[in-house]
Amino acid sequence: MKNTFLPRIIIGSGGTGGHIYPGIAIADELKKQIPKVNILFIGSKNNMEMQEIPKFGYKIEGICISGGKDKFFSISGFFIQSIELVYSYFLAKKILKKFSPDIVIGTGGYVSFPTLYAAKKKKIPIVIQEQNSFPGFTNRIFSRYAQKVCIAFEESRKYFPKGKTIITGNPVRSEILKKFPSRNKACHYLGLKKNRSIILSMGGSQGSNSINNAWMNGLKKLIHFDIQLIWQVGKSNIHRIKKNNPLSNHKNFIVMEFIENIPICYAAADIIVSRAGALTISEICLIGKPYILIPFPWSSDDHQNKNAKILEEKEAAIIIKNEEIEKKLVDSTIQILNDSDRKKKMRKNILQLGKPQATNDIVNEILHILLG
Questions:
Q1: What is the value of pTM for the model shown?
Q2: Distance between CA atoms of 181 and 228, rounded to whole angstroms?
Q3: Which residues contact 199 (CB under 8 A, 6 or more apart)?
């Protein structure tokens, strides 16, 4: 790509990491192909994107929207959300007028709704990226106006216009694979034994009480079998766990509030336990590890359960329901760790679902639209 072509691009992205990090991955690839590209993010002033996106070197403008379509189910919620949507639309419209983008990219979520609506009204080309097998409300609405819809799962194709929808996979930040060390190096870095099994447990950025309680009740058993645990517990849980369960300080366990260096932890793990967010699934499909999925039961449109079932049907992962975690998690994890044939089969099947070129393919579609 010639550096003389310097597009101005807005990315509507925010609400959760599942919408933010795909936007960052797309921005990174755009910058790689066109170093002087001008990128601006639009997010909610109330959400994590206002702090997270600048860490990656990108500018962000905030609009005032604070909730999804669930708020419409009450009279007061409907009134507040309606005001926020209208106000955020005018804010987004003002930002678009000032920045004058050549294209607007939406990565889903309620935060991108006003931005995509403003882009539609100004007749600015739109590209949508959908992470989940069951698409979100915003992407379903604006897909009819988009030039291209990039999806991660074949199962979501039926919800979008046929002629403009392509399956690319989810954009994953290049650092996930570029900084991926050997297992031995990862174990050395973390201070874990390389000749003993390692579980990586992630409960999302806020942690999960149900997952945390299951491990707390099973620490004795893990110690008995000399199994190691990298345990992301969330900010609100870390002091409670360390105070109430002395076993959490055992040398076999690394208990952390939030995982900053995820490639190191992925590399060390023999099995991964996590919620069924689309972005985490996409990352694990690329690294190829046995996987236990615990779908968040209150995810919008039950999308986590739908994401998880795709992997389970292909024998690439197993699902444990949220209400069964404390009863099943520890024993199921140990069973898989002790079954070398099953681990090998799961690794093979999950790697077949990975799409390492996803980010590049999405950016190529964006550039194709810009170049006409």
A1: 0.89
A2: 19
A3: 222, 227, 228, 229, 230, 269, 270, 271, 272, 273, 333, 337
